[in-house]
Write a structure and sequence with these properties.
By secondary structure, this protein is mainly alpha-helical. It has 3 domains: about 240 residues, Tetratricopeptide repeat domain (Serine Threonine Protein Phosphatase 5, Tetratricopeptide repeat, Alpha Horseshoe), CATH 1.25.40; about 60 residues, no CATH class; about 270 residues, P-loop containing nucleotide triphosphate hydrolases (Rossmann fold, 3-Layer(aba) Sandwich), CATH 3.40.50. Helix content is about 60%, strand content about 5%.
Length: about 575
Amino acid sequence: MNRATRRRQQKLENARSAKSGLANNPHARVMAQAAEYYQGGNALGAVAACESILAEDPDHAHANQLLGIIAIQQKNFEKAVAYLTRATTAMPEDAVMLTHLGTALSYADKLAAAMDTFKAALQIDPELVDAWNNLAGLSVRMDDPASAISYYQRALAVNERVAAVHANLANTLLAVGRVEEAITHYHRALSIRPRFPEAEYGLAQALRDNGEMAEAIEHYTIALDQDRSHVNAMASLAFVSDQLDAGMHTRIRNTHKLAAPGSDERKLLCFALGKHEEKEGKFERASELFTEGNSIHRATLKYSPEKSAEQIARIGTIFNREFFDSRMGFGASTAAPIFIVGMPRSGTTLVEQILASHPQVSGGGELSQFPATVFTKMLTLHSAGFPDAASLLQADDVQQIAQDYLGALDETITGNSHFTDKLPGNFLMVGLIKLAFPNAKVIHCTRDPRDTCLSMFKIFFPSGGHHFSYDLGELIDYHRNYQSLMQHWKSLFGDGIIEANYETIVTDPETSIRALLGQCGLEFDQRCIDFHATKRVVRTASAVQVRRPIYTSSIGTWKNYAPYLPGLAEAN
């Protein structure tokens, strides 16, 4: 039975079996009027017509369905779920209605129920593109990008000319670092729908990650030409462009003024406009904008500086000399991993770019696999998890952590003699890194704390995390706690932790890079000096900077802001 025949048969069965169906239904005329109102943009008229039907027939499927769709658009998701549940109860074999219900459940944060509902719709109609697309989007929310990619591909197998699905697939591919594939699908989306600002913006992001800055700027600009209020494009353009023209500066400033106080849009524009004011030497105004942007985001977080400080202190207490002396010989023998740790914005991306330019080193980027593996294993030992369960670790457990970590990495990362794992927050994990990989290199990146804290304060991290960085006082306190823990690791492991200082590298690059390579057991290679020419994906806040030759202009930037940001000068 082909698709068209199956759908005709389904419609016939629905009309026969559902007492509130449109065929031979006394409410057909009013329902048709409701649909006409809705299509004409008269939501109030559509709601009134549907409610008049439900007053006589509360289980009318199509009236409940339309009210559910309108409720979704009005962001009243619980009401949408109620209407669409009644609709699908009356017509349980209607795949489109089930898809609408799944959408409402998803928006209402009932993710497991939404997943089941989308799958039920696809059992009825495996060629329903919207259901595949929505199922994929839900998988992204549930942190399952592999399934999402598979579902988007299923949707395109049904109809390859749906621009939104190509763009959604591209977004997911970009999120997992498959940048070239993402670029292909953004281009495909734009070939189908030439005026598609979200696809233009996504393409610009992918080109930026790929180091193609001029092309990225071009597509950010196209996105803004097509959608003059595209806040993400404005913010991104401000960060990749050395100099905004006067017209773009005016547009960002005016959009910032009009943005609702406390909104996400105003937050992003604060950071973008602050960066431009900084370039013009207006540091007081830039300070005000960065402070406003940070305070907007801080208000959305449940971060506790007290709990953070307690955890860092607890790590240092648990992972003491006795802990390691009793576990000598644990872990895997491989020397392949090179872990790069430190505070964000302390030079970790620069150090990785230098090392990844060496022919024997693969750049892994910010890998989440090591902490994920540790947390999983710890929970199997005790419900307290990390770090408290560490006292229960035996040799087999540590070996399992090492094996699971290496097994979770892509072969493109592990295929070389060495690979980098540049997750700054792994400074919390140095003890377990040295336990699981005693022969691995651990590089600690340092930078003047005042410049480090300021650099973080000027950045919004769209990928999440770094909750400590959105209040300057909390950020400075966190930096001090980080320093204390790193001093503890240094007292335990000494030269087993390689120090890489940002100021030293940028003021004397060749000497510093030669020394760094030697400490990592690598021979000198000129490509490490010319790291900015290395073609690789970089997806951190420093993606723009590492495409440039060494520069020293970021040293001492804090002095420009010290008069306007209380406490910054004392962060040292």
